[in-house]
Design a protein that fits this description.
Layout lengths: L2 E7 L2 H23 L5 H29 L8 E4 L5 E6 L1
Antiparallel strand pairs: 1-3, 2-3
Helix pairs in contact: 1-2
């Protein structure tokens, strides 16, 4: 059973930062589905960008969880509600 518990909230500015990274990561993932390694330069740029975006995405969660001291769980992950700026802990 999946549980969803509110563990905190971020500022509008912090929300905007993760939303931009979230949308960029999703866009890169979609691009990766259609891009082939044939175009090596573009493929290498995509791989590099995906890595950098993934790192920035994870760093945001690490920074915010340290700042706000959110509850965590061994097999859980956090999610954000982009409309309310609320952070949820999702566990199975």
């Amino acid at each position: 059973m999946v549980t969803k518990k509110t563990v905190g909230q971020v500022t509008e500015e912090e929300k905007n930062e993760i939303q931009q990274l979230f949308e960029r990561r999703n866009g890169l993932n979609e691009l990766a589905k259609i891009l082939t390694p044939d175009n090596d330069a573009l493929y290498q740029k995509l791989v590099k960008d995906m890595g950098e975006t993934g790192t920035k995405f994870q760093n945001w969660w690490d920074r915010m969880s340290a700042k706000y001291q959110w509850d965590s769980a061994e097999n859980g992950h956090w999610e954000i509600n982009f409309e309310t700026c609320e952070i949820y802990l999702i566990t199975e």
